[in-house]
């Protein structure tokens, strides 16, 4: 199977690409923010499944939401229709698609373009409205509080909490990638208009900070009693390594869909 990943250089994209590379039966096609349009069109005409992860969530200018989220999706669906393709598409949308913000409006518009593609061609579309995604080596001080807390605490820097009782809904990036892979062979998948990740965790900002500080004070992996704490430990550990935390960003690469 030929699998295309847009936004392959982003946080979620890199983890998904890594998971796909372990599947020897698939040919992986990667679209990054600097991929030539002619190359993308070739990939689209040739692929059997599309993971559409590309998008913009923290632009310098508000109009970049339209270009990165709406127009890029319009190009993809328009080309698929033109060459009479009906391959399945998974779209990494956001829970913010339900909000009346420029980002939310742009994600909802992209969703609608994909729903129109499904209605027109019969190609199956899986729209995942993702919440905050955490995991190893996400970009700190960007749009992930977990990444920011992990980086700052592991480097002896202060963190800021305005309301420790604020609740966060979190998904672990490797769980997201694992669930996405299941759609390559969706035997008993229940069709829905919108999807969410099966494994989701909820925690307060205060408890999140307390847990991460416990790792900085020497708490070890074997002392973590829950699966969630072990995933937080693995995430924290990736920031305490001496190598710098980097992430690839651009008009078509999205670090997370929160």
Short description:
This protein is of the alpha/beta class and 258 residues long. It has eight helices and eight strands.
Query: Could you describe the largest sheet, including whether it forms a barrel?
Result: 5 strands, parallel
Count the DSSP helices.
Answer: 8
How large is the share of residues in beta strands?
A: 15-25%
Report the span from N to C terminus.
29 Å
Task: Report on the architecture of this protein.
- This protein is of the alpha/beta class.
- 41% of the residues lie in helices and 15% in strands.
- It is built from 8 helices and 8 strands.
- Strands 2-1-3-4-5 form a 5-stranded parallel sheet, sandwiched between helices. It has a 3-stranded mixed sheet with strand order 6-7-8.
- Helix 5 (145-154) runs parallel beside helix 7.
Main attributes of the structure:
five-stranded parallel β-sheet, 258 residues, three-stranded mixed β-sheet, alpha/beta, 41% helix
